[in-house]
Amino acid sequence: MATQTAAERQTFVKSLGRLYGLYTGGFLAFIIALAIMEQAGVPNRVLGYFFVFFTLAVYGVIGVAMRTAQVSEYYVAGRVVPAFYNGMATGADWMSAASFVGMAGSLFLLGYDGLAWVLGWTGGFVLVSILVGPYLRKFGAYTVPDFMAFRYGGNFARFLAVVVLVCCSFTYVTAQIYGTGIIASRFLGMQFEIAVFAGLVGILLCAMLGGMKAVTWTQIAQYIVLIVAYLVPIVILSTKKYGIPVPEFTYGFAIEEITAREQQLVKDGLAVLCTKEACGPGTLRPHIQPFMNYTPLNYFGIIFCMMVGTASLPHILMRYFTTPSVREARVSVGWSLLFIFLLYFSAPAYAAFSKLEVYTNIIGRDITQLRPWLFTWGELGLIQVCGKNAVNLDAAIAACKAIAGHPGVLRFQDFVINTDVIVLSTPEIAGLPYVISGLVAAGGLAAALSTADGLLLAIANALSHDIYYKMLDPNAPTVRRLTVARVLLFFVAVASAALAATRPSDILAMVGWAFSLAMAGNFPALVLGIWWKRTTTTAAILGMAAGWGICLFYLVTTRYFPQAGVTYFGMSSLLNPETGKALINVTQVMADPKWLADVPASAANPMANRVGWFDLNNINCGLLGMPLGFLVMIVVSLMGKPPPKEMQDLVDEIRKPRGKTVLEEKA
Amino acid sequence: MQQQSNDQIHWKRTTNLMLAHLFIWFFFGYIVHMFVNFLNQFTVPILKFPLGFYMAAQGSLIVFVVMLFVFAWQQDRIDRQHGVAEDD
Q1: DSSP states of A581-612 as a string?
Q2: Mutate to test the interface with B, among A8, A13, A84, A129 (most CBs of B within 10 A)
Q3: Quick one: average pLDDT of A390-405?
Q4: CA distance, residue B66 to nearest chain A CA (Å)
Q5: What's the angle, vertex CA A538, arms to CA A534 and CA A539, rounded to 5?
Q6: pTM
Q7: Which end of chain A, N or C, is less surrounded by CB atoms within 10 Å?
C-alpha cells in the first residue's frame, strides 16, 4: 500500500490544485472559444458535437493516463485521495442524470412535496459520516461485501452482500447509460442507440485501465464540468431578471409571484384548484402548499429511505475507502455534501423560474401568442398543448379549436410538460445563445457518466474481488486478478448498455427502488456490525435476507403483480393525499377481465404501483425492510451465543482510528 | 487494564457525540418539516421565502453541511484526547 510522508502529501495536494485549476481555466476558455465560433456562424449541431466529444476525450485521456497495475490502486486509488478532492469525486459519483436533469423537473411538478428528494438526497451524508463511513475506512476493506464477510463469518454473508449490491447497482447503472442516450439525443439530435454506445465508450475508457484510481481523477474533472454547467444558465437568468447573480436568493421573489399568479389563474377560471372535495389530474396544486402530492407518511418516508439508502449504497461508501486516513474520510464527507449542496439548493430555483415563465407567458395567453421555445420540445413530444404535441403554432391552435367550448386562451389543464424539459429549456427561456445549451448537455453527460463509472466499478469489483478472488481462486496472482476485474467490468458495462438500448420502461423508477433495497439489505448489518459487538453471524444473515426480502417482495408485488397483492396479501388502493379517497376502485378493476389477465402488470394497468399496505408508496419499501432487518438481527443475536472474543476485539480495533487497518492486503 | 478503560471512555464519548448529531439530524430532517404549515405563516426577511418552504429547500441543507464539518472536528478532538487519533 502506498504510504506518503507529510511533506510528500503536501506537494501532492499542491500539484493537484495546480492541475485542476489549469483544467478549470482550460474548460472556461473552451466555452468562450465555442461562443466565438457560434458568433462566427458555426452551426449548432457542430458546436454540440464539439462539446460532447471534447469533454469525452478529456475524461478518456485522464482515464488512460491513470492506468495501473497495482491492486490497491485499482480498487481504492492507493488510498491517497485528499479529503477535498474525494469530496468532489463523491459529488460527481452521487449526482446522476436524475439529479441533473430530473430533480428540477420534479420540483416544478410537485412544488413543496418535491423537496422530499432534495432533503433525502443530502441528509444521508450525515449518517454516512457518523455511523458507517470512517469505520469502514479503518477496517480497510476494498468492497462493502469484504466487511460483511469479515464481520459475519465468511462467504455466505459475502455472497448475500454481493447479491444486494448487484441488485441495487445494476438497474441504477442502466439508468445512467439510458440518461446519456436521452441527453445526447434530445440535445444534439444524435440517434439514441449511437448516443448509448458513445456513453459506453466514455465509461470504459475511464474505468477499465485504471479502476478506482482513474475513476477518481476523472470524476473530479466531471464534477467541475457538471457544476459549471448547472449554475451558469440560472445565474445569468437570475441576473437578467432581478439584477442579482445568486438565483438561490432571488427565487423567493419568483415564488411570491407564482403564488399571486396561481390565485389569479383560479379567479379567472383558467385553472381548477385541487381541494379536499376533488383533486383529480389537471387540477392546480399551489407551489408552496405541502402534502398535496404525497401524504405526510410518504413524504417523510421518501426522505428517510433516501437518507438511509445513501448510507447503504456501496458505490458511495467505497469512495471513502480511498482517503489517506480515517480523519480525512470524515472531513471528506463534509466536502462531499458541500459540493452536492451547491447543485441541490439551486434545483428549486430552476423549478421556480420555469414555473413563473409558464404561468405568466404561456398559461392565460392567447393561443396565437405561444412562445417559440416551446415548439423545439413539442417536436420531440415533450410538450403538449390541448392534448397534442405542440410541434408548431398551427398544430397547437388546431388542437385547441378541436376542444368544444375552448376559450381561445390557454388554460392550466391544456398545458403538459415533460419534467426533463425544465433544466434543458432554461437557456432558451432566458434567451441565451446555443453555446449555453451545449454546456448544459455536456454537464448532464458528465453527471450520468461519472455516476455510471462509480456504479460499474462497484459491481465489477464485487464480482472480481469478492466472488472470483475471495471465493473461487484465493491464490490468483495479481496480474490475473486485475485482468479478471477488467474483463468483468467490460461485460457488465456492455450488458447494461444493451439493456439501456431497449429503453426499458421502468428504468427511472428503479433508481428510487435501489435506495430502498440498499437500505433494507445493508443498513442494519453495517450499523450493528460496528456499533453492537453482540451481533452474531446467523442474526446478520437472517436479518439481511428478511429485510431485503420483504422490500423486494413489496416492490415486485405492487408493481408487477398487484392482482395477487390484492387477492392474497390484503393490499388495497393507495389514497389521494388531498381528498383521502382511494386512487382506484380495486373491485371494479379486478372485475375487468382485461386487467385480471395482465400478469405481470403492464405500466398501463391501473393498479400497478397504486396498491399497497398502510397507504405506503412502493418506493418506501425500505420502511418495511429496515425495521424488520434490525428486529431480526437483535432478537436472533440475543438468542445465540455472543461472537468470540477475537471478533469483539477486532470491532474495538475498527472503532479507533489509530493503528493499522484490520484487513491487511498481501502485496 | 488502564488502556482498556481509556478505550471505553473514548467509545462512550464517541457514542454520545453520535447520538447528539443523530438528534440534530432528526430534528432538521423531520421534526422541523412536520410544522411546515405553521412555519409558512412567517416569511424570511428580504428573501421573501415562506419559512416552512425555506427550511426544506435550504435551511436544513445548510445545517447538514455545517454539522458534518463540526462533527469531523469534534470527533477528531475526542480521538486526540484519548490518544487514538492517527499521526498527522
Answers
A1: -BSS-HHHHHH-HHHHT--SPPTT-TTTTTEE
A2: A129
A3: 87
A4: 8
A5: 55
A6: 0.93
A7: C
